[in-house]
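Study this:
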Amino acid sequence: VQAVMDTFESYLTSKNRKGDSLLHINLLLSINRCKSLDVAKETLELVKRWREKTSKSNCRVLGLDFSGNPLVGSFQSVSSVFAEAAELSIPLAIHFAETMNPSNTACILDFVKRYQSKTNIRLGHGCCLSDDHFKQVVSLKTHVEICISSNLLAKMAPSVKEHRLVDYLSHQHLVSLNTDDRGIFMTSCQNEFNLVQNELSLSENVMNSLTLAALDAAFCSDLIKQKIKSALKL
């Protein structure tokens, strides 16, 4: 964690950095599905310690992420750690429905229903859902991070037009376009936007709404969001 934070701080203070005060870096520490409950508890302790240490910086350790191989482990095995984090108002990003796993999806949706009033929660992927679970996601109004290239390469969806994104958009559900991992999937946010717009023939207004939805779901203060929104001029 120290090495990552040092790199972030070095970039933010670099004289050669292009940008301005709009750049704020927040780091989420990941709880890997494949690891034990003890490792999950250690990760939460790291988050708590570093949140306090970096609370006044433009570069902060901010929250917890649930990710890793979706074919291994379950959310239920570490849900107590995420519940503790939620009680402390620590922001959470939870990857789910990357494969058709109804019991795990139900567990995550139950968790969101119980704790999203206590902290900010984002859901990642949300591709492989039964119609009933999709309706639950929509009713919860929880932001979903969509990673089109990643999902297509991992065969979570056969095509952009058959991706759950189409359903989310038709229900005017809050979603954003993301890369998942730029290096592994050889993509960028610009590429994801171009791919979706070209495949779905979306209007400029819809594309702008996806940008604003990402900003609204960001784990940062309303003041920072407003500054960025003003700069975007959307």
